[in-house]
Specification:
Helix content is 54%, strand content 13%. With 607 residues, it is of the alpha/beta class. It is elongated.
Length: 607
């Protein structure tokens, strides 16, 4: 314990006598200071034992002594030592009465006891207390380290709770409780989630003190600008020196646990990049051999492949694609599905989409993945703050659920393999939904609310930055290349539609028609149909409506003519005029497909 007035009074060598305030001797003494100033208050910090001889005081004036003692008490002085036999043979009654009235302990210092002896005694006691605290702190550090190495964060929290005679809890990057000790404190830790989220939004390292049933200290854990975890320590009173050492040791150990060393993290990224390359090259057995137990059963169970891009990358790709890329997005259905897809598109059906396979999926994938792997191996940038936050959310969700997840970051792109139907995929969806909600509301994602509160909080305040995500259908290791292609297609659609996340299953189960809303597609449609519209504007026929009816009836003259209310010969004449004006033959299925897509695009635009 630190020195107190009582310990000084009981010090046999000092021979101090209590003259006032005997019931307040248990107060700690921070220092002993001698001063003969009439007003030493400006030089006091609080907690001092002030030693005087009353050289410059009128110690026999009751009113002056009351003012003097009152100012000392207001400054936090914990005791007054008066040396007798120097200027006064005894302590004046005016000073005794003033000290008794203000409750300030007054100690009589005999002439044979120098002030220096009292200062030495206080200093020695403080040094002994500090030594005991440091020794206890080192012992606590050894115990905490042993628990961290043998029992992990849970064992460390248990040891810390014992050291501070309270409780401790660990929170992940999303603010969720990961571990708590003892178990009875779980509810108390759960009530602090909102405080932890507010702390996490501050630049690390950060700390805060929260009141309530206990005095709770919150500390962010992490070496980057954004905290990766948080520690809560609840106690009945303020922490002492030894307890403070224990808490600081726990913070350092947990930071080492949550923030893995740079070399280890880089090595894991290189392994992940290599595993991904092998999967996409169809070398599943080699991928399993390289991965070992690092990714658990991820490579043996159905997984989803997630591709994410930051806004800067999305904007660049959108500019590169331009009008040609927009048209080929719609036309590529024919290339993937073959002739069945062509017929389905012309007829407005879905059979072609259902017929599309994964043939040639690996083509064009290898180059992108090699670049991503090289970027990861070199420890490249995360490609934007939102990409980094997405990594935190996905990894935290996987850790809480005990799932394995493979994350390969590129400067502008992120590749993730996560268990199908698992927590990591769900967290990715919630994160994207929170961004979508915030974008629609035109405000910060944190204030956008929604069911994905943890993900929304992790989004943070990111101005003028967007994220697009493509999610593949469930796949196994043998179909990893196809899953990558699916995620890439979904990413492209998300970019075009202004969506945060698109699943490939939406495209496979839906229609190609939503893809026709692109400005470049509409420009293509307008250019193709403009000669027909100009002809119709002269009042010499209704070629556009006739073409639409004929295509919708798969070239059946009688049915199409009936829909238009004209004779089939009239319709035949109009279709010949269409061919003459466009300079194309309607017998060519490619021409019919392009015209049908152009009609659908203009219809979607309300033209």
């Amino acid at each position: 314990m630190p020195p107190t007035l009582a310990s000084l009074v009981h010090h046999s060598a000092l021979k101090l006598t209590v003259r006032a305030g005997e019931d307040r001797l248990d107060v700690p003494v921070r220092w002993a200071h001698a001063s003969e100033l009439a007003d030493p208050v400006p030089y006091m910090e609080g907690g001092e034992l002030l030693l005087i001889t009353a050289l410059k005081l009128d110690a026999e004036d009751p009113e002056a002594m009351r003012r003097y003692v009152r100012r000392l008490v207001g400054a936090g002085v914990v005791g007054l030592g008066f040396a007798v036999g120097v200027h006064y043979e005894d302590i004046p009654e005016a000073l005794v009465d003033a000290a008794e009235g203000e409750g300030l302990p007054l100690l009589e210092v005999p002439r044979r006891t120098p002030f220096l002896a009292i200062s030495k005694a206080v200093s020695a006691a403080i040094s002994a207390e500090q030594y005991r605290a440091v020794t206890a702190g080192f012992a606590a550090q050894r115990e905490l380290t042993r628990q961290a190495l043998t029992a992990g964060p849970e064992g460390l929290l248990g040891a810390l709770a014992g050291q501070v005679d309270g409780w401790a809890a660990l929170y992940d990057a999303s603010g969720a409780v990961v571990a708590v000790a003892p178990e009875w404190a779980e509810r108390r830790a759960g009530r602090l989630v909102a405080d932890v989220e507010r702390l996490r939004d501050r630049p690390a390292p950060a700390s805060a003190v929260v009141g309530g049933e206990d005095r709770v200290e919150l500390h962010s854990l992490g070496t980057g600008r954004r905290a990766r975890a948080a520690l809560a320590v609840g106690t009945a009173a303020a922490l002492g020196t030894a307890e403070r050492y224990a808490v600081h040791s726990a913070i350092a150990l947990l930071t080492l646990t949550t923030e893995r060393s740079g070399s280890l993290h880089a090595a894991e990224q290189r392994i992940g990049a290599a595993v991904l390359r092998m999967l996409l090259a169809g070398e599943c057995d080699h991928a399993r051999a390289v991965a070992g137990d690092l990714y658990g059963d991820l490579l043996d169970a159905p997984f989803r492949l997630i591709l994410a891009e930051a806004a800067s990358a999305s904007a660049a790709r959108a500019r590169m694609e331009g009008a040609v890329g927009a048209v080929s997005t719609a036309v590529s259905v024919e290339g993937v599905a073959g002739e069945g897809a062509r017929a389905a598109v012309v007829g407005g059906g879905r059979e072609g989409a259902r017929a599309s396979g994964a043939g040639g999926a690996a083509a064009g994938v290898a180059a992108d993945v090699v670049r991503a792997a090289a970027g990861a191996a070199a420890g490249g940038d995360s490609g934007g703050e939102l990409l980094g936050q997405l990594v935190e959310v996905v990894e935290a969700a996987a850790a809480r659920a005990g799932e394995a997840v493979l994350v390969v970051p590129d400067g502008e792109r992120l590749v993730v393999l996560a268990v199908d139907g698992g927590a990591a995929v769900a967290a990715c969806g919630e994160f994207a939904a929170a961004l979508e909600t915030a974008r629609a509301a035109g405000r910060d994602p944190v204030s956008a609310g929604g069911s994905a509160s943890a993900s929304a909080s992790a989004v943070g305040s990111v101005e003028e930055e967007e994220l697009v995500v493509g999610l593949s259908a469930p796949a196994g290791p043998i179909a990893a290349a196809a899953a990558y292609k699916q995620a890439e297609q979904a990413l492209s659609v998300a970019r075009r539609r202004g969506r945060c996340l698109v699943e490939h299953e939406e495209l496979a189960a839906g229609s190609v028609l939503p893809l026709l809303g692109d400005d470049a597609v509409r420009a293509f449609a307008d250019s193709l149909l403009r000669p027909l519209r100009e002809h119709d504007a002269t009042g010499r026929g209704d070629l556009v409506a006739s073409l639409r009816a004929w295509l919708s009836r798969h070239g059946q003259w009688d049915a199409a003519a009936a829909d238009l209310g004209v004779h089939r010969h009239t319709l035949r004449y109009r279709m010949r005029r269409v061919e003459e004006i466009l300079g194309r033959s309607l017998d060519d299925p490619d021409v019919r497909m392009e015209l049908w897509l152009a009609l659908k695009a203009t219809a979607a635009a309300g033209e």
